[in-house]
Amino acid sequence: MNKSIGRFNIYKMIINDRFDLNRKLSDSLNDHLTEAIQWLCRAQDATPDDGFARAYNLMSGWQSSYPETTGYIVPTLIKYYNKTGDREILERCIRASDWLLSLQFPEGGIQAGTIKEDTGVPTIFNTGQVIFAWVAAYNETKNTAYLDAINRACNWLAKSQDDDGAWRKHGSVVTRCHINIYNTRTAWAMMLGGQLLDAEKYRLYALRNIEWALDQIDDRGVFDDNCTQDQFKPLTHTVAYTIRGILEIGLAAENEHLLNIASKSAKKVLDNLSSSGFLPGRFDKNWKPNARYNCLTGACQMSIIWLKLYELGKDGDFFDGAQKAVKFVASTQDLETSNLGIKGGVKGSYPVNGEYCKFEYVNWAAKFFIDSVLLWDEIDQKDK
Residue 106: how many CB atoms within 10 A of its CB? Predict the structure, then answer.
């Protein structure tokens, strides 16, 4: 596998990104989708286990497997399998899900960080994200080992939750901020697990976390405690985590209040999308841009949220914004390079030397890009 592209080529890539010289959109988004899928397959093949490499780093090559994001990559690839019937993709998902089973702590949690970091302690957010894998894998295989793992994970999350619904214990040791409103995404996973297990108690714990999260939102739709590194200018990535959790639980619970809150915050982000589809990577407490780079992961996540809100209310602004954001991200992919660590991957930041995952192509950016293209295609098919 490729190790490094060399300092000169990295510098050249920075210049090209800064001056928007290499952005190129294929005639079909399907080309971008297919290459992103193949990039994820290579990310799995690059590791000695069955997890997905965290990233391809331009200076050091492929990194070790990342349990957290492997967890939510699985349902993305299973969705792609259901669309295409590609059995190899399903087999990859089962291998990844079984590998995650081998990592579960006896009490039910999953570690933070990559396998190489080996933190040795369970953490809330990562455990929630792995539940997504086991739910999707069980729905395809009916293997009850996944049900047992889901139950143990949900039980551990329930025991770890404070009385007001917040998760203050077992924060990730690889982040600077340990109280995270974006655990609404963990609550969403817990609700899915509870639905599959027919366990009302887990649904109630999920709703309790959402109730706590609502207390952290002001009348402008701004969230407190909503970043891994800087609470005063959160990433679009973590903003989108929070909104998506509220939105999905609102949909599951048929709660109009939650849907309205998600829509209000999503609209604030949309107001900052440029006509070209560029979305600033951070916002301050007044929803003003606080970064000159695009966090491509967050842009893809927001496009998914906008598409889901479009489905709910047929607000054309949400659909148009999602289209622009997705096309912008697709245009930053390199589909022609011979470097297989780059081809079809999605950068952490655009330009590539932006603060978020600098000089890296990260697996979760590819995952959310694939999700956004698949959802866009679904909506197109329904609207025809």
Answer: 8
**Structure tokens given for 207:** 């709703």
The pLDDT tens digits of the residues spanning 211-238 come to 999 999 888 888 877 766 666 689 999 9
Nearest Cα residue to 173 out of 121, 127, 130 = 121
What's the rounded Cα separation, in Å, for the pair 91 and 299?
29
For residue 61, the SS3 value is strand
16 in Cβ contact with 342 (< 8 Å)? no
Q: Is 167 helix (H, G, I), strand (E, B) or coil?
A: coil
Half-sphere exposure of residue 148, counting CA atoms within 13 Å on the CB side? 11
DSSP per-residue string spanning 240-285: HHHHHHHHHHHHHHT-HHHHHHHHHHHHHHHTT--TTS---SBB-T
CA 3 remoteness from chain centre: 25
CA distance 346 to 364: 9
Q: How many CB atoms lie within 10 A of CB 208?
A: 18
pTM value is 0.97
Length of the chain: 384
Tokens 């047929």, located at residue: 314
Taking the C-alpha atoms of residue 172 and residue 220, their distance in angstroms, rounded to an integer, is: 28
How many Cβ atoms are within 10 Å of 47's Cβ, its own excluded?
21
Q: Kindly calculate the radius of gyration of the chain based on its CA atoms and give it in whole angstroms.
A: 19
